[in-house]
Amino acid sequence: MAIRYRPATDDDIDAIHAVVRAAETFDRMPLATPRDEIVEDFAAPDLDRSLDTLVAVDEGEIVAYSLVYPLPTATGKQRTFGFGSVHPDHRGGGIGTHLVEWQTRRGTEILSATDTGEERVLRTFLWEWQAEARELYERHGYHLARWFHTMVRPLYQPIPEAAVPDGLAIVGWSEDWSEETRLTHNAAFRDHWGSTDNSPQFWAHRLASSGNRSDLHRLIVDGDTVVGYALNAHFPDDETVTGRREGWIELLGTHPDYRGRGVASALINESLRLFAAEDLTHGALGVDSESETGAHTLYGRLGFETLYRSTAYLRRYENSP
Fold first, then answer.
1. pTM over 0.90
2. Which 3 state secondary structure label does DSSP give 143?
3. What residues contact 12, with CB distance under 8 A and at least 6 apart?
4. Top CATH class, 4-147+312-316
5. Which candidate among 137, 155, 161, 256 keeps its CA 20 to 30 Å from the CA of 216?
């Protein structure tokens, strides 16, 4: 019987999660996506599930899943992100090719409706060792654009005190700081490769994501202005795969006007101390290997070492795929 393709529904969540986990295990990914993350994907702002999701069905069983996530912004570069998983038992029959072709077609449709006068790109992320998937995207016009590193630091090593710069203060998270932190995040990442401003809707969705630990967030403020932030997370399911209990510094940034004063170092060390107090075993973060701010070097000085590498693949917008 031929494979049938259709949009995903709420009734598919458990089957999709099973496919995603089977693919992650087979592909040796250092993570374990929780079911809640699939639910969150479905609820993402700007996602039209009837158009932006796809499942492959073989004799009534879901065997693959794909999603194209738009990140519209009023100014700057326009992006879509394509993701896909094919169950290991159903690879080699053209399903993966169909998913990439669909991602490209749908991403092109989304980007065709946006034009800020700047570059429009389709993007996907793949682990370094996913050779077959990387070759598949390359055959469809995507190219390797950037390397990203996952860096880890054991928490049994001594953690320095958080040396907060003079005149500034470190504080815990409150929803009252959310909008100020969003604006600082946008300012901090505006000069980073491939970054676009977070809308209020996307920011709220991000803060509500699974693994988010607002009790472990820390901000550095100058009066009533947020000048730096570390928004942290813990993903307990990952321990079954990595053997580590990791505290993740998910979002870290310093307002450009306050760079070079030790804001990021203070936030990292304070986060590590909080992780250790939670009986976690490692701190973790991700970084652009070519970060213009020198973040990779800073993290190395603070005891982090690269454990995994991943890739960003891009395809530039064309009127048709």
1. yes
2. strand
3. 55, 62, 65
4. alpha beta
5. 256
